[in-house]
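Marked as duplicate of an earlier ticket. Keeping the data here for the record.
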Amino acid sequence: MKFKIIFLAVTFYFMSITWAQEMQNEPKVVKNVDLRKYAGLWYEVAKIPNRFQKHCKRGTTAQYKLLENGKIEVINSCIDEDGEKDASEGIAQIVDVSSNAKLEVSFVSILGINLFWGDYWIIGLDSNYEYAVIGTPTRKYGWILSRTPKLSDEKLKETFEILRSQGYDTNKFEMSVP
């Protein structure tokens, strides 16, 4: 019995260390996001390719609208391989109300219940809300968004510097076609 208790204690100790290291290694979000300024239309400038956007060939945008219940309506759209506009509607909710920079998004709703929430962390944001850099704790996903279809070379360089400083491999990003 003593062996089991010692084994469990040692296991818990090492799990705690691993969890603490992972928490320290997560990207850092911006200090504050004014959701009223953040709402509106954003253009995708670059992304880490992912399975749920595989069909998108150009013109990818995200439209955010604040709702009275405190959540955010999300409409992602793009032009697919057939030249047709494809849109997905979802909902975002704030996870960290102290900064408004950690959100989670769901595009699956069954009987009004949203399922399969994904992290959406704002890890970079231009002071004038001209661009946003979006990441996730695992760095599996990442996006650069802009208020215009293209960013200036200077602003694009800033976004990639943010990604590098947050531990992202910027070689994984591909530029989006407006």
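See parent ticket for discussion. The longest strand covers residues 56-66.
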